[in-house]
Specification:
alpha+beta; four-stranded antiparallel β-sheet; 4 helices; globular
């Protein structure tokens, strides 16, 4: 499945957000893959962030990461940089994502 998300980075946090993503901890990258994500891309336009995640089961992905210390630490760090955050809980999975408007 593919899930598209929208978040927003604080204007004063853009450089730190991008720097953090150049150095995503290897343990977190491995955990995201082990939880079922095959791809996760983030695009930025100004302060708007658009994510495209490809995974077998998004709810499972979130539940696997929810209590993982490396992810908890990462989410705290990202929470300090974002104006609009995503609910990374497994309960948020059912409401996550941008609705598909058109697809080729």
């Amino acid at each position: 499945m593919r899930v598209a998300l929208h978040t927003r980075v604080r204007a004063d946090g853009i450089e730190e957000y991008e720097a953090a993503h150049r150095e995503v901890p290897p343990e977190l990258r491995a955990a995201i893959s082990a939880a079922g994500a095959t791809s996760w891309t983030i695009w930025r336009s100004g302060t708007e962030l658009f994510h495209l995640i490809e995974c077998a089961d998004y709810g499972h992905l979130l539940s696997e990461l929810a209590e993982l210390p490396v992810n908890v630490t990462w989410q705290v760090r990202m929470g300090e940089l974002l104006d609009v955050v995503h609910d990374y809980s497994s309960e948020g999975a059912s409401q996550a994502g941008l609705p598909v408007v058109w697809e080729l």
